[in-house]
Amino acid sequence: MLSADERPPPARLTAYDTTTGREAWHRETPGHFTGLAAAAEAAYVATTDGKPGGFTIAALSARDGSSLWQHKIAAGDLTSRVDPAAYLHDQDLILYAPGMITVLDRRTGTQRWTAETAAGVTLMRPPTIHRDVVYVPANQQLGGGVLRWRLADGTELPTLWPQVSGDLLTVSGDRVYLASGDVVHSQPL
Fold this sequence. Notes:
five-stranded antiparallel sheet, four-stranded antiparallel sheet
């Protein structure tokens, strides 16, 4: 079990033994935690110092908190602080933040691909993975739709509902659904 404490820096990540409830290990960072995902083998932690320019993602051993790898992600032309969220899918670690999505090999930290969205487009919700395609609802002043990329190589696929801003996305069977206010859009894959 993991706990992230965001008190004034340094921020502290603590792992607890699930049998005894006692602290197993802890790590501190001079910035703050912005994304966290955990698996049996590791905790994946995104940290930032709160300044423009990117964030760092690190894999920490679930056993003792030792560093397995660390990777700096540049935020491109973003001018605001990047607060990424981290999600696991098979052997991939998927990070999304305003204006960008990055996929890393979670075993090695090797960056597989990064995609930046067009100016004014914000990724609204966590990614949904279905049949090796990454789906992310987006929002912009004129609508955003559902952005899509091939998980294997980051190839961008055509946007679904490009003039619709939705906030709830699901993919089931052979259909994709996007809720936008009181309307649910549906389309075959």
